[in-house]
Structures are given as C-alpha cells and as structure tokens.
Amino acid sequence: MAKLSVNINKIATLRNSRGGNNPNVIKAAIDIQNFGAEGITVHPRPDERHIRYADVFELKKIITTEFNIEGNPKEQKFVDLVLANKPEQVTLVPDAEGQLTSDHGWDTIKNKDYLINIISVFHKAGIRVSIFVDPDINMLIGAKETGTDRIELYTEGYAKEYAMGNKQQAISPYVEAAKKANELGLGINAGHDLDLNNLKYFAENIPGLLEVSIGHALICDALYFGLENAVQLYKRQLM
Ligand SMILES: CC(=O)[C@@H](O)[C@H](O)COP(=O)(O)O
Ligand SMILES: NCC(=O)COP(=O)(O)O
Prior knowledge:
- The chain is an alpha/beta fold.
- The chain has a single domain, classed as TIM Barrel, CATH 3.20.20.70.
- The chain is 48% helix and 17% strand.
- The protein contains eleven helices and eight strands.
- The chain has helices at 9-16, 25-34, 53-62, 76-85, 112-124, 137-146, 156-163, 167-184, 199-205, 216-225, 227-237; strands at residues 3-7, 39-42, 66-71, 89-92, 128-133, 150-154, 187-191, 209-214.
- Helix 2 (25-34) runs parallel beside helix 3 (53-62) and helix 3 (53-62) packs parallel to helix 4.
- The protein is globular.
- 1-deoxy-D-xylulose-5-phosphate binds at residues 7, 9, 43, 70, 93, 101-102, 132, 191-192, 215.
- The record marks 152 as: Transition state stabilizer.
C-alpha cells in the first residue's frame, strides 16, 4: 500500500496571510501524523510564500514519520537547509523562483551531470533522493543514470485528463512510466493535483507505487470534512 505524505504548504499559506501563528503549522504536523499520515512534505520556496526556512528546523523536531523536503537544489540556501535538517527524503523539483506552483519535471538528460553531482551530496549525508519527472520514458532512463533512489511522477497531466472523464487516457502514460521505473529499479513516488476523486484509480493502476505526496486538495477538503477526516479519507483511497 502506498504511503500518504501530507504536504502542509497551504496550512502555512493561511498562517502567513494574517502575520501571526494561527493556524499553528507545527501543531498541524503533529496532529496530521497522529491522524495516520505516514509522512510530512514541505516545499520551502525562495520567497517563503508559505513554508518558511525556519519552519523546517521546527518541523524536524516533531516529525515521527517521514520528512520529505521538496525544492530546487540550484538554490544553495535550499541545499544548506536540507543538509542541516537531514530529512528521510529530499525531492528535487526544477521550479523557477516566480512559478505559481510546480509545473514540470526535470530534463534528466540535459541536467545529467548536475543531478549526478547534487544527488551524491545528499547521498553522502545519508538522505534518500527523489527527483520530480514527467511520465516520459526517456526522462526515466535519464533519471536512472543520475543515481537517484526514486522518481516522483508529476501527476497534473493525469488529474486534468481524469477530471475530463478520460480515465484510460489519463492513466496510460503513468502505467508505462511505472513499468519502466520498476524495470530500472527506481522507486516510485507521485504527486501534484491528486485528490479524493482521482487518487484511488491512480493508486490501483500504478505498479510499485511507494508514496503519494498530497497537499492542496487535502487541505481544501479539510475545510469541509475536518483535518482528521480528510487524512483518513485520503488514506482509505490507498487501501
Ligand atoms: C512538487 C509538487 O508538485 C508540489 O509539492 C508543489 O511543490 C506544491 O507547491 P505549492 O504548494 O507551492 O503549490
Ligand atoms: N509533490 C506533490 C506535493 O507535495 C503536493 O502537491 P499538491 O497536492 O499540493 O498538488
């Protein structure tokens, strides 16, 4: 059964909107783990629009599950933050600073030498590495050559097609990518725009899926169902 890592970026968005400490991001992370999440994911961006670098140090103290820190390692501040906190996993995402959100995976062929070097830095620190990729067979082959432990399949394309009712068209590139990742010996994570409607079908069809990281939709659902119910509802889609 794939593990659920809850991305708490949007809890920090709400907190930052009023300048205080409500909602308390640290308390939320403790509670989310107690509600059954198997991991906490954060994506501290250079502009600190939601998760702040200081949050990461405080979160590290209370993580009892798996800590997954996402970001672009071309920001030295991000690399230093990860090495200082030594999470179980770092997920490398090629986002530019001004992006609204993550919207593409790595070109693992053009960035091969760079990724080999930066992945070895995190490996020397004992940190598992996952790299964010599109469901493109050539990018998976390139990912294998970088030495990464896992790939994270970027699932916005799946979510969009699924929402239009094109289930088979939505899932097939990801099934092919997962088969290739399994053949290459790459661990499979997935994330971005997964939600209560599309998660079960995705998880049932992706062979070897280890972990999904879900944030935006889960936090939105929590506004209606409550945070504990939301975590439980998402976990139930993975059973
Ligand atoms: C890598 C990924 O797809 C998400 O974790 C993304 O980082 C979410 O970032 P925002 O919460 O800033 O949209
Ligand atoms: N890596 C994906 C993630 O952490 C959360 O993405 P989203 O659910 O906020 O789209």
